[in-house]
Amino acid sequence: MVRIWALGIMALSMLGIAAHVIAEEAGANEAEPSPEQPVVGRAYHVDEYTQAAVLRYPGLKAAAADIDAAQARLSEAKISPFMQFQGRATFFVAPGARGTAIFSPDPQIPWSNRWGPGGEVGIEGGIPIYTFGKYRAGKKAATAGIAASEQERDRTLARVVFDVRRAYFGTQLSLDLQAMISEGKDKLRTAVDKLDARLKADDPRVKQTDYWRLVSALSEIESRESEALRLEASARAALEILSGLRPAIVPECPLEAVQSEVIELSEHVDRALGNRPELFQLEAAKSATDANLTVKRAGYLPDILLALRASFARTAGITDIQNPFVIDRGNFAGAYAGLLAQWKLDFGGTHARVKAAKAEIKSLKAKTEEAQQGIEIEVTALYEELQDAKRRLGSWTRSEKETRKWFVSAGQGYEVGTTTAMELVDSIEAYFSARSKRLMATAEYNLAIAGLEKATNMPLLAPKGWRPLDCEE
Predict the structure, then answer these.
(1) Cβ-contact 2, 219 below 8 angstroms
(2) I need a labelling partner for 31 at 20 to 30 A (CA). Which of 40, 308, 416, 464 fits?
C-alpha cells in the first residue's frame, strides 16, 4: 500500500541523514550568540544563511590564520638570511697573572694566585652576497605556501556554501513533505471515520476489508510523517549550527527549481580545470618543489658571505699585555671583516637529495594529472545528475497535475458513495507518489546546481538567484 510513495520518501530521508552529518562535522556544541544576533523568529533565505555561515565558520577562520602564518614565513625567508649573526656574553672567574710581554713570574696556570672576575662579549656572523639561487628559492617556496593557504580558504568556502544549501533545501523539502502528508492524512482519516460508522451501522455496501485497507494506508502515511519530521529536525539543526541563526526558519515558500545559466558539459569541465582550488594547490606545491630542487642542487656550491666578527674581554686580576703579537686570553679586543665561502662537503648526500627532489616533481606532475581526471569525472557525474533531475522534474510535474485531478475526483466520489475505498487509496497512492517524486527531483536539481558551483568554483547564478521567484520576504 502506497509502496511507491513510501520508497520515494525513504530516498528523500537520505537528505536528512546528509544534513545530520553536516551538523556533526560542524561541531556538536552550540556557539555563543554574537552581539549582532538577528531578531528571533525571522525567516531567512538561503543566501542569508550562507552569508551568516561564511562569517562565523571556524574552518574559514583557521584558513585566515594559516594565510597569516604563510605570510610570516615569507617575511622570514626575506629577512632571516641577512640576520645570521650570533652574540655571545661570558662571565667567569680566573686566577690572576702578572708579567710583561717578555717575562712572567707565574706558571702557565697559576692556580694558587688570587682569583678574580672577568668577562667577554662578542658578535660574529655573515651577510650572504651570493648563494647560487638558495635565497631566491627560499622566497619562491614561501610565496607558494601563501598561494596554497589561500586556495585552501577558497576550498573551505566552497564546501561550507554547499553544506548550507544542502541543509536549507533539506529543510524546505521536509516542510513540503509534511504539508503533503497532512493533506493526505486528513482525507484518509475522514474516510476511515465514515467507513467505521457505516460498518457499525451494518451498511451492506461496505466491506471490512475496505476498512482495513484505509487504516493500513493511514498508518503508512503517519509513519512517513515521522520520517519527514526527522528530516526537518536534522536539516534545521545543520542550518542553525552552520549559520548561528537560531531558530533556523525558512520562508513559507514551496520548493522550486532555481533558474541557472545553461552551460554545456565541456564548458563546465573547462571552468573546473581552470578554477579548482585543488589544482592551484598542486601548482603551488610544484613551485615549492622546484624551489627545493634549486636549493638541493646549490648544495654542491658554496655560499659567498661577507663575514664579520668583533670581540672584547677584560679580566681584573690578569695583567693587560699591550702587544698585538702576544695572545692575552684575559684581556683582548679584536674585529675583522672579509669574504667567506662555506659549504657542506657531503656531496653523496647532496646527490641523493637532488634525486629525491626530482622524484617529488615527477610525483606532483602525476598527481596533477590524476586530479584533473578526477575533476572531469566529478563534473561529468554532477552534470548528468542535473540532466536526470531536470528530466524527472518535468515528468513528475506533469504526473502530479493529472493525478491531482484523480485524487480530487476520487475523494469527492467517495464522499457520495460512487468510489470504492480501493479506488480512493489508489488515487492517493498515485498522487502523493508523483508529488513526492516531483519534490525529490526539485531538491536534487537544486543540489546538482550547487554541486556544480562547488565543483567548478564558479557561480552559476547570483546569490539572490537561489531564492524562489515568487516568494515574499
Answers:
(1) no
(2) 464
CA 466, 471, 473: angle at the middle one, nearest 5? 95
From 425, 443, 433, select the one nearest 399 (Cα to Cα). Answer: 433
The conformation of residue 244, written as its DSSP 8-state character, comes to -
In sequence order, which ranges of 244-338 are alpha helices (DSSP H)? Answer: 265-275, 277-298
**CB neighbours (10 Å) of residue 441?**
22
Write the pLDDT tens digit of every residue in 168-212: 999 999 999 998 888 778 777 877 887 788 788 887 777 788 788
Q: Enter the C-alpha cell of residue 470.
A: 515568487
**DSSP states of 69-105 as a string?**
HHHHHHHHHHHGGGGEEEEEEEEEEEE-B---SS--S
Taking the C-alpha atoms of residue 25 and residue 47, their distance in angstroms, rounded to an integer, is: 21
Q: Is 211 within 8 Å of 188 (Cβ atoms)?
A: no
**Within its chain, how far is the Cα of 109 from the centroid?**
69
CATH of domain 3-26+42-98+114-466: 1.20.1600.10
pTM strictly above 0.90: no
